[in-house]
User: Fold these one by one.
Assistant:
Number 1:
Amino acid sequence: MTKGTPSMGKHSGKKSHMYCRRCGKHSYHIKKKKCASCGYGATPKQRTYSWLKK
């Protein structure tokens, strides 16, 4: 297989993220089985930080 632009076309069909069942955002990682936004799949608690709040 060659490097560069021709091989980049083979990456297009793979999805890494889908919609989360808990928060509804498009941040649930299919392979990791974890949501980057709310933490669904990793923890039963909602993912929040003090610096996240306005």
Number 2:
Amino acid sequence: MLEYTINAKSIIGGKAQCFAGGSDFEFDASSGRDDILPNPAELLLSALAACILKNVERYSEKLRFPYREAKIEVKGIRNDNPPFMKEIVYSLEIDTEIEDRKLEMWHKNIIKFGTITNTLLKAVEIKGKISKMNINNNNKMKNN
């Protein structure tokens, strides 16, 4: 069993800082809305994006599906009263030349074995799609 620990602090006005995994980042903990720093809802969506992209890499290696780049856009729909994330929608694009059947298998593994995806799926509806990017990219393939 794995255990995760982070530390965070905020100062008056809501500027906050998180320390995790040997690095740190700032976020908005104010009562309003900061124009620059991510707020907690954006951090939640970022955690989902990070989980999905981590599993792109993990299952690229396990399934031997080479890719050059992966991009994801994640949108959250928030209910106002009471406040909660009502729905999350993502679009994952991968620059790869694998066949569509393998792309769908890759997608199933990415979602099925994600810590954050499985946690959020217990609380919110997540809708997502995977597609191939335009392959006109001169980068070298990441795997075989």
Number 3:
Amino acid sequence: MDTFTLAATSFTIALSLFIMGKKDKLQVSFSVFCLAISIAQAALFFQGLFAPRFWIYVEYIGILAIAPLAVWFFRHLTHNNSYLSQGSVALTSLISLTGVGMQFTPLTARPYFRYALIAYACIVLVICYIALFHHVNKLTPSTEKRRLRYLLITCPTAAFICSADIFGYLGYNFPPIAGLVLSALLYLTLLIIAYPQLSELHDFFARALVIFISTIIGAFIFYFVAFFFSSNLPSFTSVVMASFLIVISVTPVKMILKKFFSFLYPDSKDVFTSLYEFDEKLEREKALLLSEMAPVFAHEIRNPLGSIKGAAQVLQSEATTEEHRQLLNVIIEEVNRLNAVVSQFLDYARPGSGKIRAQDINAIILRVISIIAANRLAGNITISRELQDGLPPVNVDEQQMIQVMINISLNAIEAMPQGGSLTFRTSKIETSEGVAIGITIRDTGSGISPDDLKNIFKPFYTTRERGVGLGLAICQRIIREHGGSIRVKSIPGRGSVFFIRLTANGKL
């Protein structure tokens, strides 16, 4: 079962990458590498079921294919910046082809031949690991370096855990786990190369935890059901491996069925939409309806507001007492406030229609700082900047980005009534899909409570007495329309940090 798990997992990963249809060389090389592992492990599994001699040959071919494909994959993983050259791929391919030719000689009958092939594949994998190690050490601090370090740590850890199988060969009653461990390692590698948006260690741990919990739950459900129908239950290790295989196979199988049914039933687009995803679809439809109703809603409110304000101004000019003038002034101020609320509501409801073009994000931040410094509320605030030079441009609407940063900055200033510091920082973030720009806005204010933190981007949620609760919701919408992301961390009493990430793909 251990061998079958690794064969099926590697095949599932290869299949999922093929189905995704991306022509990225890194993903293609990894999918072919996984396919070679799948062939070798499947042949080893079938040797106990069918004519063993044929499957022995297939296993040897799979093992021999692993070496050149591993070099090819690690070359792309290091962006061709390691000592693994095209000549290394050619050399390992030549050695592997020689090994394939040796299968037609009496050497294959020798018991050490298989161990020699395994040793050859392991040596090449160690060389590839060393190349990756040197490549990571030469990288400047970046997201890519951090992600590759996770792989550097995981590989020897997996090798150490797999060494526990030695106890099984020595006669101890220890179930084989190497297949399950290597399957998890391949899945982690898939996350690293195919999902660059997972950049933090907790992201990978969260994914691994979801897979682990789903696997254990699946195993317990099997035992719970099987308990009522059979007295001969399989071992817990076998059930866990089968459950793990089912969990990671759900998405690729769903993708295959989706393509198949979209061909047979092109009008049934929601056949694979889960009941929970229907809620998200409903939210998108509500947002579209809101964008259509908002202008009409604003027009119908602003017209009477304008009449009220005009009448109040006329009456104010004719008022004979100070008390009447103050009451009429309250009416005018409240009309202005309601008009501002309607404007913010329009900004949130209508889709962005800004002028997107390549911009220098540092220049935008310097303009924001000059605007904030001129605000009388920032009199006792120290504004500092840590802007990285040489950042690539980003495709953004300048006015909308200024609006986002000013909204965040004014909230930060209000959180520091006794003074404090406001820091703007930019950085270059390298990912496997390209370069991104990171913008950090940090304050030393009162911070945000955990209960408020999870709601601050919700429309009309506010903690201020006369606040509207649309400022941060508008910020989030603008950033998302630019294809970026925004998040916040805060410690009550110590301050808050807003993180904005935008893709760098413009040209000045």
Number 4:
Amino acid sequence: MVSKELETAINKQINAEFWSAYLYLSMSAHFANKGLPGFANWFNVQFREEQDHALKLMNYLISKGNRVELTPIEKVETKWNSVLHAFEDTLDHECVVTSLINNLVSLSRKENDYATENMLQWFVSEQVEEEETAQGMIDSLKLIGDNGFGLYTMDKELAQRSYVPLANEQA
């Protein structure tokens, strides 16, 4: 079992992961409504990945004999002024998630819970990728600027992204 304090913290992270999923689902719907199906697809894949992250944490707690406690998900934004603004929000959000994961790692170290720290290293690596990807999207969108053809081309590229579920042993 993990300690009660760590169990509570992981349950809060589960909620944060589901909130992230909800945010990305909102972004997906927003861009679908704006006629940008590629961007909608990109955020839909993010939505599904965030659900996987929550399930991975849930399964870990269950495997350790701990209790999963799902709590209400707070409201998310539903409108963005531009694709760039949505990706800037994405990067800001992923930086917050990184700090939450880092706090969990610190707590697991404080408690000498090496198994939990080991499991959390997957999330540390995932957050590096998430931040790098969001920054790359921002950089591309800044290069495109107001070029409608550039946005159209990027939208077509993002439509090709597909969801890859976590392996059974991870989710």
